[in-house]
Specification:
homodimer, Glycosyltransferase, Beta-galactosidase, Chain A, domain 5, 14-stranded antiparallel β-sheet, 25 strands, elongated, disordered N terminus
Amino acid sequence: MKKIIQIQFFILLFLGTTLSLCAQDHPSLILTKSGVAQIRADLGSVPLFDEILEETKKEIDAEIALGILVPVPKDMAGGYTHERHKRNFFVIQKAGNLYQITEDEKYAIYVRDMLLEYAELFPTLPLHPTNRSYATGKIFWQCLNDANWLVYTSQAYDCVYNFMSKKERELVEKDLFRPLADFLSEGNPQFFNRIHNHSTWGNAAVGMIGLVMNDKELVDRALYGLKMDINKKNERDNDGGLIRPDGQKKAGFLAQLDGSFSPDGYFTEGPYYLRYAIFPFLKFAKSLANNKPELGILEYRDKILEKAVYSLLYQTDYNGLFYPINDSQKGMSWNAREVITAVDLAYFHYGNDPMLLSVAEKQGVVALDEAGFSVAKGLADGLAKPMKQKSIAYKDGPDGTEGGIGILRTSTNPDNELCLVMKYSAQGMGHGHFDKLSYSLYDETGEVMQDYGAARWVNIDQKGGGRYLKENNTWAKQSIAHNTLVVNETSHYNGDIRIGEKYNPDLFYFNGKGNVQVLSAKSKNAYSDTKLHRTMVLVKDENFRHPILIDIFKANSEKNNQYDLPVWFQGHLLLTNFDYKKEATTLNTLGTGHGYQHLWKEAVGKAKDGTAHINWFSNGKFYSMISVVEPEDELIFARLGANDPEYNLRNDPSFIIRKKDKKEATFVSVIEPHGDYNWVTELSEQPFASVEKVSILHDDNQYTILQFSNKAGKEWTLMLANQDASETSQHKINVGDKVFEWIGVYQLK
Amino acid sequence: MKKIIQIQFFILLFLGTTLSLCAQDHPSLILTKSGVAQIRADLGSVPLFDEILEETKKEIDAEIALGILVPVPKDMAGGYTHERHKRNFFVIQKAGNLYQITEDEKYAIYVRDMLLEYAELFPTLPLHPTNRSYATGKIFWQCLNDANWLVYTSQAYDCVYNFMSKKERELVEKDLFRPLADFLSEGNPQFFNRIHNHSTWGNAAVGMIGLVMNDKELVDRALYGLKMDINKKNERDNDGGLIRPDGQKKAGFLAQLDGSFSPDGYFTEGPYYLRYAIFPFLKFAKSLANNKPELGILEYRDKILEKAVYSLLYQTDYNGLFYPINDSQKGMSWNAREVITAVDLAYFHYGNDPMLLSVAEKQGVVALDEAGFSVAKGLADGLAKPMKQKSIAYKDGPDGTEGGIGILRTSTNPDNELCLVMKYSAQGMGHGHFDKLSYSLYDETGEVMQDYGAARWVNIDQKGGGRYLKENNTWAKQSIAHNTLVVNETSHYNGDIRIGEKYNPDLFYFNGKGNVQVLSAKSKNAYSDTKLHRTMVLVKDENFRHPILIDIFKANSEKNNQYDLPVWFQGHLLLTNFDYKKEATTLNTLGTGHGYQHLWKEAVGKAKDGTAHINWFSNGKFYSMISVVEPEDELIFARLGANDPEYNLRNDPSFIIRKKDKKEATFVSVIEPHGDYNWVTELSEQPFASVEKVSILHDDNQYTILQFSNKAGKEWTLMLANQDASETSQHKINVGDKVFEWIGVYQLK
C-alpha cells in the first residue's frame, strides 16, 4: 500500500512540476488576469455588479477604518474572538478582490498587513483553549473553522501576491500558511482524511494555499489525501459520525467527489450541509480548473459538481428555503453566500442556464469575480427565466444504491404549490436522523407538516455556545420528532447510529409527472421485526382549490405492537370532528424515552365513526387532515417541551394516531390545504375541508384500495399495488361485488 | 322631555324641507354630479385611480357573471349566508360607483336587480333564526350587520336612483329600505340609541338611506336618535356593556360625535373599534356635508372627525398595525378598508396633508370617489411625505377627564423604532380589559411585549362562530393577561365591569419630546386598598444600538399583599443570569381564578445577587430585560394554555416577578433590544445586553433614584419625583453621602 501511494505521489509531483510553469501568474486562483481585465473594461455597464462593487467598497472601507483586529483566540462560536476571526476572513477575501478590480492599493495594504499580523500571531498559538472538538483548531475551536479561514485567505493572498515583497511572502508562507496547512492535514488526519464536509474544507484549504504558493506537496495532499493507515478505525467525531467507515480506501478531494455524492448529485448529509460543503468543492474546483486544467475537474464524474448545484437548488421549498432534514437549522435558503457562489460558478461554467439567473436575481448579489460578473451581465441583458423546481427522486449513496429522497411538487395556480419531501435515505452520517419513510410538506407559505430540524441555535452563544444541544440527540434525531411511524415507543434502528449506518430503506416506486404523482418506499430494517411501507400521492384536481396529499402507511409484524403515527402540523388547532379531553390542570409526559419524554400529553380522543378530521390554521391559511381510524385508536394531541430544563426546545404541537396491540396496521390520511384568511378584511375563504370521508375498501399485502369523497358528493378511488412496481402489470381484484382493475402501481379515478 | 324633543323635531322638519329642494340630485350621497364629472374628465391620467378602477371592474364583472345570490338568511358569521350577504353589500356599492364613473349600464342593471331581489326577500324575513344577539337582525344575526348592509347599499341606491324607474324605486323603498330603516331604529332602540359603535352604524344607515330617499323623518331620527325613554335602564349588551349608562341624555349621530370621542379624538373602545366605527362616522358625515352643508358636520366639535382619523393613524406600530388594546384582533392595520376611506376623506376635506398620501401609498388602494381621486392625484403629483407617527398622550372620556393612552416612540436610526403604549384609560365599555397601567412595546419587527388582544377568531366559524369566546372573559380581559401589576391574584376592579366603569387611573406626567421621554400614571381604584404608580422612560442614547425602556412600578398598601408583575415577552427564552428549576415531567396551573387558572407554571427561580436578567430571541432579534429583584422574589416562567378545553388560547410565554407579603413594592426593569441574527449568514450581532446592572439607590413616596450601568462601565442615574408633576420644581435629596439635585419630574444623567 505504502509503495503504491509513493508511486502515485511521484507521478503527480512530475505532472505538477510541468504545469507549475504556466500557473505562476497571480491572481490565478479564483480571479485570473484575463478575467480581471474584462471586468475592469466593463465597469459601469453592468448594474448589479457595479452595485455590489460599491457596497463592498463601503463595507471594506469601514473595516479598514476600524483597523486590523487579530485577537488571541479564546472564544467558542458566538464569542468575540471567534466572530472577529470569522469576520476577518470574509473581509480579507473581499479586500483582495477589490484590489484586483479597482487597483486601489489601500486594499492590498490592508490584506498584506493583516496577513503579517496573523503571521506574527500564528507561531505563538497552542491548540485553541476550548479543547472541545475531535479536531481542535488553533485560530478557532475546531479545525473546520481554521480551514474556512484558509480557503478565504488563500484567495486574498493570491490577489496581493505580486503586491507583497518576496520577503513578506516568505514570511507569511513560512510562519503562517505552510504550518497551518500542515496542521490541518498531517496534524489532524482524523479531520483531513474523512469522506465528510469537514474534510472537504480541509482539502480545499490545503490545496488552494498550495496552488497559490506553488507548493506541489500540499496540492497533492489535498487531492489525494494523507496515507490512509494513519487513521484509526472506528473513531467517531463529535456528532457520532464514523471518521473512517470500513471500506474507505481513498481520501482527499477526488475521493470526496467520489464519495460525498450519489451519482445524481445528492449529498448524504442533506441540503443544509451540502449548502455548506458546496463552497469548498466549487472554490477548489475552480482553482484547479484555472491552474490544473488537465485534471478536467469540472467534468469529473460526469459533471458531478453541476449535478450537486442543481440538487441543492431543487431541495428547496417555494420560497427557496432548504428542507431542514437531518441536523439542519431552519431559515437557511438559496440566499446563502455559498449558494450565491454556486449559482455564479454553475452559470459561468455549465452552459449559462437562464434559470440560474432568476435565482441570482432573488439573491440580489453576485460574487466579485468573473463568474459573478457573467451572471450580472446575463441579468442586465434580460436573459433570466423563472426557476422551476421539479419533482425528482434523488438516490443516496456513492453508488446510488442507498435509498434516497423523493420530492413531489405541483400547483393549481401560479401563486400556490404543495411540495412533499419523503425521506428513505441512508443514515446521513453523524448528522443523520432516525426518520425513515418520514415526510415533510410545504406550501407557498412555508411548512405545513414540519421537520423539526436540529436542536441547535447556530452561532447563538446563549444556547450552549451555538453547538448541538443534548436535546439534539434526545429529541431532534428521534423518530417521534418526525412525521413517521414509531413502533413501541422506540426509534428506528433503536436510535443507534451504528445500526442505522448499515441499512437504508428502498424506493419502491416514483412518478413525478402529471396530476397524480406518487412516491412509495419500504423499510425492512428500521425495526428488525416490523416491515414498513409508505406510499404518498400528490393530487391536483379541479375539485380542490389547492393540491391535496394522500398518505398510506402500512406496517406489519409477526408480533403485536403499538404503532404511533405523528404529524407535526404547523399552526393552531381549530376544530376536530371527534371528542377529545384536554388536560385542564395537570400535564404529564407522553413517555419516558426515545423522545417521548419531551412530549406533554395534552389531550386524548377517540373517533367513533371511523374518520378523524383535524382542522388547523397557520400563516393565514386553513388546513385539514382527514384520517381513517378505528374506534379504539387513540387520537393524541401532544406538545413539545417536557424534560427541557433550559428551554432549548420549541413548543410545537403534534397529532398522533395510536394503534395498540396490532400485528398489522394501515394508516390512511388525506391532507388538504383549503382556505384563506385575510387579517385586514377579516374574511375567511373556505375554512372547512372539501374532503369529507375517507375509507379503506380493501387492504392486504398485495393491494390497497381507498375511497374518498368531497362535500359535493364526488367520489374518488385510489388503487395501489403494494408489491409489483411495474408500470405495465395488470391488476384485478374483487371487493364484495365490485371489481377493481388497473394497470401499473396506482390508479386514481 | 317629550315636549322638547317634539319641538326640536319640528324645527328640523322645517329645515329639512327647505334643504330638500337642493339635495334631490343623484348621486349626492358620497359621489356628486360635479365630482363624477371631474373624475370622468381625468380618467387615464391618474395611474393609481385608473388601476383601482380596472381592478374593480374585473372584480364586479366576475360577480355579475356569477349571477345574483340572495339566500334566505340562516348562518352565523363565517357561514355561507352571512358571508354571501356581506359580499353583496361590498359588491353592490362598488357596482354603483362603477356605473357612475364608467356610465356602463350593466352595472346599474346589476345594482337594480339585486335591490329588487332583496325587496322581494325582505318582507318575508322573520328575525334571523340564530337569535343570539341583544339586537338580532334580519339579513344577518345582528342588527349591526344589517346596518353595515344598509350603509353600503344606500350608496349603491343613490348611484342608480335616476336609472331606476319610479315604480321600481317605490317598490324598493316601500318593501326594503323604509322597513329596514324602521327595524334598525324604532324596532331596536337598544341598538339604535346607544353611545356605541353599533349605534353609529345604525344612525348612519338610517340617515344615509333617509338622505337618498329624501325622507326627513329618517334623517332626523339618525341625527337626534329616538326618544330616550324608550330605553330600559341598566340593560347590557352581549359584551356586558351598558346600553344606556346613567347620565346619557342624548342619542343619535350628533350625540355619538359628542360622546364617542375625547376632545382630542381618542375613542374609548380603542383603535381596533375606532377603525370599525370611523367608517360610518365619515360616510354619514360626508353624506351630510353634501346634502346638509348648513349642519357644518365636518367642523363639528372643533373638527372632531379629523382628530379621530389622526388618532387612528397614530395608534399604530412601526408597520401600521393597530395596538390590540381591549378586545382587538391582532393583524388589523391601516390597510383596512375603513382606514382607506378615512385617509381619503381626511386628505380631501382636511387640508390635503401630504403625510396622509404616504399612508395611502402603503395602502395601495383608493376609494372610487372624489376623495380617493384626489389622493391618487396627489400621489401622481409626487406630493407624498413620510408618515411620522408621534409621541402623544391621548385623553379618554367625552370631557377628556377619564385617564387616557400614552404613546412614546423614538429611534436610533431610520430603520428601527421602539414604541411604548401605556394604558391608563377608562374601562372602554363592554370591550374594555382590566389592565390599568399596563403597557405594550413594539419595535420595527412587531411586538416586543405583547398585549394578548381578544380571545376571539373573527369570522372563523370553527371557533365559536367567530364570536367572543368564553376565554375572552376568563383570560383575555383579566389583569394577569397584560403587562401590569396583579395584587393577590385578583384582577383590577375585581374583574367587574360595573366597578371598572366608575373609575379610571390618571396621567401624572407626560413628556414626549427629546432623548428621554416619560409617561407616568397612577391608579388609586384598580384595588380599593392599594395605590399603583407606574413611570416609564424611553431613552435614546448613543451608547445603545437601539432605544431602551425603563419601567418603574410602585405599589403601596396598608396591608401585606402578593404582587405579581408579568411581562408577556414575545419570543423564545435563551438565557437567564439566575438559576431556575423547570418542571420536567408534570405541569400544574399557577392559580385558580382571574386568569391564573389558564397558566401553566413552567419554572421558578430566584436571583441571589439582586439583579435578574432574562435574554430572549424573536423575529431575528435579541432582547433582554434586567430587573432589580430581592433574593426572596419568585421569578416565574409561565405559559398560557391550561383550562382551555378547546384550544382557544395561544401558548404564549410570560415571565412574572412575584413579591410576597409586602405592603410596599417597587419593581424596576430595563428592557433593551440589542442584537440581531441573520438566518442566512447565521451570524449574531450583539446577542447580549449592554446593560449590566440596575439598582435602586433611593425609593420612597416622594422620590425614586435609580442607577444602571453598561458593560463598558458607563453609569446612568435616573431621578424621579413621584408626587410633584411640575416641570420647574427643584428637588434635592441626600442618599448616604451623595446629594441628588434636579429640576422637574425627572432627570437622567
